[in-house]
Design goal:
This protein is α/β, with parallel strands linked by helices. It has a domain at 2-26 and 79-114 and 159-194: P-loop containing nucleotide triphosphate hydrolases (Rossmann fold). The protein is built from 9 helices and 5 strands, in the order βαβαααβαβαααβα. The protein has a 5-stranded parallel β-sheet, sandwiched between helices. Helix 2 (31-41) packs across helix 4, helix 4 runs parallel beside helix 5 (90-102) and helix 6 (117-134) packs antiparallel against helix 7. The longest helix is centred in the middle third of the chain and has 18 residues, at 117-134. It is globular and about 50 Å long. 24% of the residues are buried.
Length: 195
Amino acid sequence: MILILLGPPGAGKGTQAQRIVETRGVPQLSTGDMLRAAVASGSALGKKVKAVLDRGDLVSDKIIEEIITARIKEPDCKKGFILDGAVRTVGQAEMIDRVLKKQKRSLDVVIELVVDEEELVNRLRTRIAEAQQTGQPLRSDDNEETFRNRQRVYREQTAPLIPYYEKQGKLRKVDGMGSIDEVAAEIDAVLDGIG
């Protein structure tokens, strides 16, 4: 089972992805983790990535394609995987489709966590207030201005993936405003329906 979770920042993608990893036994493939692993491996590709990162440049889509191609050939991806952060634009979606086609595989489903963005801002405010009351450190991006900017970037750059995957018949919408367990149950119903 190969899947992508879509939704704006704060929608709960990370929480749900981790639960899918635990219950379905498929790895969560994060672009950042894959880049770090490539560098740590010392492979020719890893050296290429390290040189780009050392210059402070962004890693090209071509290198990302090589990294993903190498990663999905590993044994733990045989049963499938969750793509995390590798598909943020239509161009990247097309690249993933190409990579999978070369491997004679395809994306099974894209789950969109449908949420109320204003309610996510309210949840952020609550999280900040609770952290301040208990003296816990805040994440660097735990402020409303940054959060709203991340939401705007999602709407502009990533939301166009929704019609892209709808046209392919792969998009399933899940109400992301319920409790973690309610959202998980809806996701499970989708995943059970595909295989």
